[in-house]
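Key result, reporting period 2: structure in, sequence out.
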């Protein structure tokens, strides 16, 4: 359970226990029941970018957590607003791509549920946010990436070239001894796929076609206590790419930008598990490191 969900539950329990006739001083749940530290390599170790919780009260910010990745589902867009995952060589193995796209059974009743045929003949690919190629250690890991909540409509050229080369670079880093905390999603509406023109929605309006795709990657040498190892020198790569067939007009690394820019256009807050001053220094810069 995430720290935020834990606090909500803890507060609900404490509130229920406080229904007495005489008023009592406000409870201080954090003082007596500190939230557990995140499990090692929990993708939300560095924070929950939208404060998503697993409550149907937040239909457009609904937290789904799996061993393979976590995401916030936005029912108004019919997709995740972000997916977060951890990548290291431990996640990489021999398992083949299952190509087993399927509706996500963890979506609550009443939510829009995407099926693979929602993408048929739309001019857009079923683009993974957490890549199939990042989850090849076990069959169960790979199958999880094909739940449709991890899928968004991507222009084929973006999906198969520019975005794919970025994914490949991140796996190169994992093979080279790094571990990565990665977040990805789309924002805006209106992409241009293989049919040309601009498409704002598919699935009879239930799935928004993003105008652009973003990704944020925090990169550390493999080690322990990841949250404690972040410094202002920690490498972060943030990217913002158009959802069009012209996305390959420049290489993926020419789409690098700051985390602050991604926060401004998405309304998300990355790394909110880190001290504010450290966030500020990490988020203002644009990566200029080696990219191949
Ligand atoms: Mn680690
Ligand atoms: Mn932030």
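The corresponding designed sequence is given below.
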């Amino acid at each position: 359970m995430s720290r935020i969900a834990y606090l909500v539950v803890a507060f609900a329990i404490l509130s229920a226990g406080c229904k007495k006739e005489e008023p009592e001083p406000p409870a201080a749940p954090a003082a007596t029941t500190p939230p557990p530290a995140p499990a090692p390599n929990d993708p939300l170790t560095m924070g929950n970018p939208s404060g998503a919780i697993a409550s149907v009260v937040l239909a457009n910010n609904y937290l789904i957590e799996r061993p393979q990745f976590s995401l916030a589902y936005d029912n108004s867009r019919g997709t995740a607003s972000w997916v977060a995952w951890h990548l290291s060589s431990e996640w990489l193995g021999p398992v083949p791509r299952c190509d087993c796209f399927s509706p996500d059974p963890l979506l609550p009743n009443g939510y829009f549920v995407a099926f693979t045929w929602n993408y048929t003949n739309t001019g857009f690919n079923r683009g993974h946010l957490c890549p199939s190629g990042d989850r090849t250690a076990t069959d169960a890991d790979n199958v999880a990436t094909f739940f449709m909540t991890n899928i968004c409509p991507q222009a084929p050229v973006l999906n198969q070239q520019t975005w794919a080369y970025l994914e490949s670079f991140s796996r190169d880093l994992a093979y080279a001894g790094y571990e990565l905390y990665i977040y990805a999603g789309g924002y805006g509406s209106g992409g241009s796929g293989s049919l040309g023109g601009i498409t704002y929605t598919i699935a009879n309006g239930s799935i928004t076609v993003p105008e652009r795709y973003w990704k944020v990657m925090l990169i550390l040498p493999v080690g322990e206590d990841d949250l404690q190892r972040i410094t202002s020198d920690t490498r972060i790569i943030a990217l913002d790419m158009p959802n069009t067939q012209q996305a390959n007009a420049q290489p993926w690394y020419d789409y690098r930008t700051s985390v602050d820019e991604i926060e401004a256009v998405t309304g998300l807050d990355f790394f909110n598990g880190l001290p504010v001053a450290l966030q500020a220094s990490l988020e203002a810069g644009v990566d200029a490191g080696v990219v191949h």
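The first helix runs from residue 3 to 17. The two ends are 37 Å apart (CA to CA). This case is discussed further under Risks and Mitigation.
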